[in-house]
Specification:
With 505 residues, this protein is an alpha+beta fold. It has 16 helices and 8 strands. The protein has helices spanning 10-38, 108-120, 133-161, 169-192, 198-201, 203-223, 231-260, 266-292, 298-318, 327-340, 346-352, 372-375, 379-385, 415-435, 449-452, 456-483, and strands spanning 67-75, 78-88, 91-92, 98-101, 366-368, 394-399, 404-410, 499-501.
């Protein structure tokens, strides 16, 4: 006969239940303790940002007044606050913007040091160059010092050797004139070297302008034969023009050779390119010697040779295919994309780029990295569009009084933000031109902007529409540009250095 298991007694149930609960409680306690032990310590709140030193009393004129702070701006380490007069109901009086510097003026010595640094060191020094740059430039400067000193004696010696005159005063005077001529050329070369990054941004335009200056210098030298008593001023002017052209040629040579090089062979490409240039120079010299024996007309011969020189220079520059986007090539690419939906190829984009526009002249109605006071007439126009760009690191607007579209960058702007802001500015330009039948004032004195431009309400609508278009089209534009071979990771748009900072709501 089987024995049935006896049911658990109440006392046993009460004994087992607490033991199971105890084990669970211990297990959970150990797990929570382990989690707390492995968790990172709570971060301390970041200290508030330190504001730059403010000159005492700089805002006294705005105490107990109706002026209100709109935003702050920083350029080259210096800050400005912008105020506008409040007339109530979140409205500001037109034309009441005031700029106040947050720093006291620099001492004359500091201004002089900054001025000298702008000529002798590159932008961003010392982080923009490798450590060996300083000793290299030191020895280079010393070498040129001795070379310049020796040139005085060698020039006078050569002139005495060829028997300029038996008179003791004449060789010295001629040597001094010749040295002054060369010295003026070196000064012009030094001053023009301050263009710096423009040799990268507007390479083709500067290269062609430099060749034109070389030809102009040759023409002025030719004119000294007609007025020999004006030899010194004409020779100095000619040498300045030719040295500026030489600086341009030297500064743009490496980027051009780099564009032609495939792989790590830029040294070989440069050497062979210089060899071809020297051979052609020797052949041209031999040709001119043979022609000179026939005593041709000097003016006619020079005119024909000048036409051949300028035409060859233009074709040389136009044949260069660059992979980066400067302002001219970027405008060509965006215009083609907005009209056809396609980005031009490298060859097409470079072929459509104009090389006649001088880089220092502003032919485009788009201004990048401008000052706040140039972009906005009054605070209301800024506050009306600021929410549109709340999530962006830039602000794009239009100033009807100046007839330009302005792109302002916030202090957190990255290279891609600059690229996007430029795309946005071109889109806004396209919308405004389309709404006005392709009429758009390029300069203040061309026409009355108020006749061609929409009202402020329509302008705000255009800016909002352009933002929607940019949100939808910017990514496809970048993708298609990369497919065509354009380098989008870096650009040569050369924006201004002003940045908006400390924006207030």
């Amino acid at each position: 006969m089987k024995l049935k298991p006896s049911p658990t007694s109440p006392s046993q149930t009460l004994t087992n239940a607490p033991s199971q609960d105890a084990r669970l409680l211990v297990r959970e306690t150990l797990r929570i303790s382990a989690n707390l032990a492995s968790a990172p310590p709570a971060e301390k709140p970041a200290p508030p940002p330190q504001l730059p030193p403010v000159e005492p009393g700089f805002q006294d004129q705005f105490v107990d007044s109706s002026f209100r702070l709109i935003c702050s701006e920083e350029i080259d380490g210096r800050r400005w606050n912008y105020f506008a007069q409040d007339i109530g109901s979140v409205k500001f009086k037109k034309g009441s913007i005031r700029a106040v510097s947050l720093q006291s003026p620099k001492a004359p010595v500091d201004e002089l040091v900054s001025f000298v640094r702008s000529y002798v060191v590159p932008e961003g020094f010392p982080d923009s160059v490798i450590p060996s740059y300083v000793p290299y430039m030191t020895w280079r400067a010393l070498k040129h010092f001795f070379g310049g000193a020796m040139s005085v004696f060698t020039t006078q010696t050569l002139l005495n050797s060829v028997g300029v005159s038996r008179n003791r005063s004449t060789p010295g005077a001629v040597a001094i004139n010749w040295i002054l001529k060369d010295g003026a050329g070196r000064v012009g070369k030094m001053l023009y070297s301050r263009q710096g990054k423009k040799f990268d941004y507007d390479l083709k335009q500067l290269r062609f302008a430099g060749d034109l200056l070389m030809e102009l210098g040759a023409a002025v030298e030719l004119a000294t034969a007609a007025v020999p008593h004006l030899f010194l001023p004409l020779a100095c002017a000619a040498n300045v023009a030719k040295n500026v052209g030489a600086v341009t040629s030297t500064s743009t040579r490496t980027p051009i050779y780099k564009a032609f090089a495939r792989g790590e062979n830029i040294g070989d490409v440069t050497a062979k390119g210089e060899c071809v240039g020297n051979i052609a120079d020797l052949l041209g010299t031999g040709f001119s010697i043979m022609v000179a024996k026939r005593n041709p007309s000097l003016v006619t011969t020079f005119a024909l040779l000048s036409c051949g020189y300028v035409f060859s220079s233009y074709q040389e520059v136009k044949s260069v295919v660059l992979h980066t986007l400067n302002r001219a090539r970027f405008t060509v690419a965006v215009d083609s994309f907005l009209k056809t939906g396609q980005v031009p190829t490298l060859q097409e984009g470079n072929a459509m780029e104009s090389v006649f526009n001088l880089p220092w002249s502003n032919h485009s109605p788009i201004v990048l990295g401008s000052r706040f006071k140039d972009a906005f007439q009054d605070a209301n126009s800024y506050l009306a569009i600021e929410p549109v760009f709340e999530r962006e690191r830039y602000v794009v607007t239009y100033n009807p009084s100046k007839g330009n579209i302005y792109a302002l960058f916030k202090d957190q702007a990255k290279p891609d933000d600059i690229l996007k802001a430029t795309f946005h500015a071109n889109v806004l330009l396209h919308i405004i031109r389309s709404s006005n039948g392709n009429r758009f004032p390029r300069r203040e004195n061309e026409t009355d902007p108020s006749v061609l431009l929409p009202s402020s309400t329509n302008l705000e609508a255009h800016i909002a529409d352009s933002y929607k278009m940019v949100s939808a089209l910017y990514a496809p534009f970048k993708s298609k540009a990369k497919e065509q071979g354009w380098v989008m990771s870096e650009s040569h748009l050369n924006p201004g250095r002003a940045r908006l900072c400390g924006l207030t709501k």
